[in-house]
Write a structure and sequence with these properties.
Blueprint: H1 9-14, E1 26-31, E2 34-39, H2 44-50, E3 74-77, E4 80-83, E5 94-96, H3 100-114, H4 132-140, E6 163-165, H5 175-182, E7 189-191, E8 200-202, H6 218-222, E9 228-230, H7 245-262, H8 264-278, E10 283-288, E11 297-303, E12 306-312, H9 324-328, E13 343-346, E14 349-352, H10 355-373, E15 378-381, H11 388-402, E16 407-408, H12 416-425, H13 435-440, E17 443-447, H14 451-454, H15 456-467, E18 472-476, H16 482-486, E19 489-491, H17 498-511, H18 517-523, E20 524-525, H19 527-533, H20 539-546, H21 550-562, E21 566-570, H22 572-575, H23 580-593, E22 603-606, H24 613-618, E23 625-626, E24 630-631, H25 635-645, H26 657-666, E25 671-675, H27 679-682, H28 686-695, E26 698-703, E27 715-718, E28 727-730, E29 735-739, H29 752-762, H30 772-782, E30 799-801, E31 826-827, E32 846-851, H31 867-872, E33 878-880, H32 882-888, E34 894-900, E35 903-911, E36 919-923, E37 953-963, H33 986-990, H34 1009-1016
Parallel strand pairs: 1-5, 15-16, 15-25, 17-18, 17-21, 18-19, 20-31, 21-22, 25-26, 26-27, 32-36, 33-35
Antiparallel strand pairs: 1-2, 3-4, 3-5, 6-9, 7-8, 10-11, 11-12, 13-14, 13-27, 23-24, 28-29, 29-30, 32-37, 34-35, 34-37
Helix pairs in contact: 3-4, 7-8, 10-29, 11-29, 11-30, 12-23, 17-20, 17-21, 17-23, 20-21, 26-28
Length: 1020
């Protein structure tokens, strides 16, 4: 297969926000008498902005593209006035931005805008320097508005828990609609252009709180004024915004009265002074999201500990994008049940203790157990929520201070099989490219991944690429989630059989000569052995085993082989099976056979579930590897660490998470230090796990709250969340990003790195780190993949994708020239099919599936503490198919009991077509520990990595007599009815009888839907 034709590939990869179409050839245009470099097809406004020529532009946003609703960017183009945003560059253009006609059109356009907007900037919550309507007034130097503001006659919509819409402040620019329709692609917002008084609509006219809105926050982020605003800002952001409503309204009247006599300039001057005063107490701090592994970054606005808003824009992974958790899910930081003092167990109770007493006790007991039972009687688990620097110190503490390799992290529960499969085939166990590459693929395949709920911002890029015609989407899953509903092809294999269809499709592609022969011959080893290993995997056998018709698989195989670029995304539906590692290898094998590595728009993407689960593994919190996936027995690695740490690494593999519990029950493991994981609810077979905790002689739990796991601890240490410390996270893209301290640690709490350092010093080691930057410098010295990483290179929004050379050169796209093996060639790995071991039978006749919800993160310890999120999704439930519900006479809201060989839970039923037949689905999140889905899952797992086979669980169901409310309230977005359209559809505005181009001129514009979609990169 040939290279994807993506001119300016480097430019595309370096942008933030959603991918824009590639630019054409370089040409020259003239702007205000000066020559400017431009590219054919790009919006003219981009050229003007690059030249730093001041030009009004209210509706234009560089991450949205041309919308063409506000008309304020009117300029003269080859002698004709037109919109700079809607005009595509052509060679030789002559542009003048400040002619009499252009200025008149700009001012007239702005006057129409403020007729829709009540200018009370001095007392506005949003007067904070980022209000485009306010700033444009200064750009144009307008002193009076000639069209008076007229109220629209609509009430404010306060029905969403996080934000409000004020129609009287809405200028109908359409930014929010464009962001919802074509960036987030939730397709909730439209503008009722044909209404007598147009306004923004949710689901065609529903209250926000009863619509399909997912509270992602895109609309608020791009709103150019205060029409859409966070409720956390209202009455909190300005010097005057906290005034009682009657006084506030009177203040507006005073402001408007002064404007009539003195003009707008004096009022704006006062407004600027007031805005500058806010900067003295409103702090804006860059951080990285603490939820999933996408790696969104943004500024957090705070007034002391009050979180005013989250403002995205410059993050490489997300740009303007967020999800409900990243935008609004931060109240857990200020939850009233935060731990603020260490706790020590005395009998069946805990008492408060000083930090010195608690740390002394931890140091003494670890030392005593090590002396009595040896170093391997102790174990350590790093947190995937903590920073890279903290994960590094956990494994350093285990190996240097204690002398054991008994260290692990929660990737054992999800992504270790993907890592293993990729290391076997291409040599590096991480995403082979970035989100940019996924956006550029001609086909995206997801397998066992509910990305729209587990990795929402990444999924928006897939949805956008598909909607705009760039990408075909194929989904393999047993449950119909959002990407499945949107897909071009949705296939439901039987649970645990993905290995079979992957191998059969691979075999068919080679047999038919559809593979990339040149790529395989030049860059791949092991073809003959691999083909021998899958010789029995015919399409007929695949149909028999998976339930997918052979003809469907053949058509899919031919389509895949014909694509220019294919990306495969997978997650826990693959990895949490008995053969998770083998299936991951099979995915990579298929990509290798079709030449889909090492080029833009290709590759393997095992999506990481936690914000720093990639980093925790990168940092060596694993039983057989130190940082950078260096084997503990490798001589160079041993030498390097001996020089740095003064100890010799032990070569034998330590215990992983699951083995630690068995060892505790058997009496071999005496002490465990667990950092930032609710392991009692997230590990499989929770009842077995609790027996392991009870068997420990000494158990330390380090967390934000007194979790269910903390109930079993001997010492509980109060830690600090990401907003209260500095460090780095590494996202699913292998992208390393700095986070800065937003607020001081809550009194009585400490960051994890300080806690581990304090205990190490008590045990005689000179851990005198003054700042996490010093830990990163040590990581770089010890880790070839991180050789060029330091805090200076990660300043602000700068990022690096490992491997990073000493000179700071990073690697966003792996395998351009060679794979990570000595000879530079990949390996087709002859993996083996491992069928599920616990298929439904006569007693346990239902298959249990589990996973995440959009609103909640994992078990819900953080998100249940966010009132607005808990309001939308109050608790867990079990999804039943309509056919199963009819068979068992179950209705939504009815209580049922699910029983497995390992335990039982009592849940409310939700009847939904998202599941089919005898499949049932339970979200991971639960308010009460006794309702957690892992009361049901067993101890079996992937044979290579010991990752629990959560998805290989069968249950039976008892129908109870109690009937309660539907577990999904009427305000949940899943009950909404989106209104998809191709964007703002500005042509409908232009068609209104009351629309005239500003100044009464005939505009030069691309006035068609095709022009709009061309600008976004879609096919006609």
């Amino acid at each position: 297969m040939g290279e994807i034709d993506v001119p300016n590939d480097v430019h595309i990869r370096s942008m933030v926000g959603p991918t824009r179409p590639p630019r054409g050839e370089q040409v020259q245009v003239t702007v205000d008498g000066a020559p400017q470099v431009a590219w054919v097809g790009e919006p003219l406004v981009d050229v003007i902005n690059r030249a730093q020529i001041e030009l009004a532009q209210v509706c234009y946003h560089p991450q949205l593209g041309p919308i063409q609703t506000c008309d304020t960017c009117a300029v003269e183009i080859n002698g004709v006035v037109g919109r700079a945003c809607g005009t595509k560059v052509a060679a030789g253009m002559v542009v003048r931005t400040q002619t009499t006609a252009a200025r008149a059109a700009q001012r007239d356009a702005y006057d129409r805008i403020v007729a829709n907007h009540d200018l009370y900037c001095t007392v506005c919550d949003n007067n904070n320097g980022n209000c485009t309507v306010h700033n444009t007034l200064g750009v144009l130097g307008i002193d009076h508005q000639t069209r008076p503001f007229q109220p629209k006659g609509y009430e404010k919509d306060m029905s969403n828990p996080f934000y409000r819409y004020d129609p009287d402040q809405c200028i109908l620019c359409g930014r929010c609609v464009e962001a919802c329709q074509n960036v987030q692609v939730n397709e909730t917002l439209t503008i009722g252009w044909e209404m007598e008084q147009p306004r923004v609509l949710w689901d065609g006219g529903k209250p926000i709180g009863e619509s399909s809105c997912v509270s992602c926050g895109h609309c608020i982020t791009v709103c150019p004024c205060n029409a859409l605003q966070e409720k956390s800002m209202l009455g909190e952001a300005g010097l005057f915004t906290g005034l009682p409503l009657p006084v506030w309204n009177a203040a507006i009247d005073v402001v408007k009265g002064v404007e009539a006599s003195a003009g707008l300039k004096p009022i704006m001057n006062v407004s600027e002074i007031e805005s500058a005063a806010r900067d003295r107490y409103i702090k804006k701090t860059k951080t990285v999201c603490t939820y999933c592994g996408v790696g969104c970054s943004f500024d957090v606005w705070t007034d002391e500990r009050h979180i005013l808003k989250v403002e995205p824009g410059l993050g490489h992974a997300n740009g303007i994008s967020t999800c409900v958790k990243g935008k609004f899910g931060w109240d857990y930081v200020n939850s009233g049940d935060r731990l603020t003092t260490p706790l020590i167990r005395e009998g069946d109770r805990f008492r408060e203790a000083s930090w010195d007493e608690a740390l002394d006790l931890v140091a003494r007991r670890l030392s005593e157990i090590r002396a009595k039972d040896g170093p391997d009687a102790l174990a350590f688990i790093a947190s995937s929520k903590a920073t890279n620097e903290e994960a590094f110190l956990v494994q350093k503490f285990a190996r240097q201070v204690i002398g054991t390799n008994n260290v692990d992290n929660c990737s054992r529960y999800c992504q270790s099989p993907a890592t293993a499969g990729l290391i076997r085939t291409v040599g590096i166990g991480g995403d082979s490219g970035t989100i940019r590459d996924i956006e550029q693929a001609s086909m995206v395949i997801t397998i066992g991944s509910n990305a729209a709920e587990s990795h929402p911002v990444l999924a928006t890029r897939v949805k956008r690429a598909q909607k705009l015609g760039r990408t075909k989407l194929v989904v393999f899953d047993i449950r119909e989630h959002e990407l499945a509903r949107r897909s071009d092809l949705f296939l439901r294999p039987r649970p645990g059989t993905d290995f079979v269809w992957l191998s059969a499709v691979s075999r068919f592609i080679v047999e038919q000569g559809l593979h990339d022969r040149a790529f395989v011959e030049a860059r791949v080893n092991g073809l003959d052995e691999y083909l021998e290993s899958i010789s029995g995997y015919t399409l007929a056998y695949a149909e028999q085993e998976t339930g997918i018709p052979a003809a469907t698989l053949e058509a899919f195989a031919r389509d895949l082989a014909a694509q220019e670029g294919v990306c495969i995304l997978w997650a826990m539906g693959v990895t949490q099976q008995c053969g998770g590692s083998d299936t991951s290898a099979a995915i990579s094998n298929l990509l290798l056979l079709t030449g889909n590595y090492g080029r833009t728009g290709t590759g393997a993407y095992p999506l990481r579930g936690h914000n720093n689960v990639q980093g925790a593994s990168d940092m060596g919190a694993m039983p057989d590897q130190v940082s950078g996936y260096q084997r503990v027995g490798d001589p160079l690695t041993v030498q390097r660490h001996e020089r740095e740490w003064g100890v010799t690494l032990r070569p034998e593999r330590g215990l992983d998470n699951t083995q630690m519990i068995d060892a505790a029950i058997e009496g071999r493991l005496k002490a465990l230090w667990l950092t930032g994981e609710e392991m009692s609810l997230t590990d499989a077979n929770a009842n077995h796990l609790e027996r392991g905790y009870e068997a420990l002689e000494f158990f330390v739990v380090q967390d934000l709250y007194f979790t269910n796991t903390a109930r079993y601890a001997d010492v509980v240490l109060p830690a600090s969340p990401s907003l209260e410390k500095e460090g780095t996270f590494t996202s699913t893209e292998r992208r390393i990003q700095r986070l800065y301290q937003v607020m001081e640690p809550l009194r009585g709490t400490r960051p994890d790195w300080q806690i581990y350092s304090a205990v190490a010093r008590r045990l005689g080691f000179d851990w005198s780190y003054a700042h996490p930057a010093e830990i990163m410098d040590e990581i770089a010295r010890l880790t070839p993949f991180y050789a060029g990483v330091n805090y200076a290179r990660l300043e602000g929004y700068e990022t690096l994708c490992w491997p990073v050379a000493e000179d700071g050169t990073d690697t966003p796209l792996l395998y351009r020239d060679r794979f990570h093996f000595p000879d530079g060639k990949a390996v087709l790995y002859p993996a083996t099919y491992k069928p599920r071991q616990n298929a439904p039978d006569a007693e346990f006749d239902l298959h249990l599936n589990s996973g995440r919800m959009l609103e909640h993160f994992h078990e819900g310890n953080m998100t249940f503490r966010v009132h607005g999120i808990a309001e939308k999704a109050p608790d867990t439930f079990v999804e039943l198919s309509p056919e199963l519900a009819a068979e068992r006479a179950v209705q939504s809201g009815q209580w049922v009991r699910l029983i497995s060989p390992h335990g039982a839970v009592r849940l409310r039923a939700l009847v939904t077509g998202r599941v089919s037949g005898n499949e049932v689905y339970v979200p991971m999140n639960a308010r009460r520990a006794e309702d957690a889905v892992n009361r049901l899952t067993g101890s079996g797992g992937d044979s290579i990595t010991n990752t629990p086979a959560y998805k290989d669980t069968s249950v039976r169901m008892e129908v109870l007599n109690d009937v309660g409310e539907n577990p999904l309230p009427a305000t949940n977005h899943r009950w909404g009815h989106p209104t998809p359209q191709r964007g703002v559809e500005v042509e409908r505005k232009w068609a209104r009888p009351d629309y005239v181009f500003p100044g009464g001129l005939l505009p030069m514009h691309g006035d068609s839907l095709n022009a709009r979609t061309d600008a976004l990169g879609a096919d006609d």
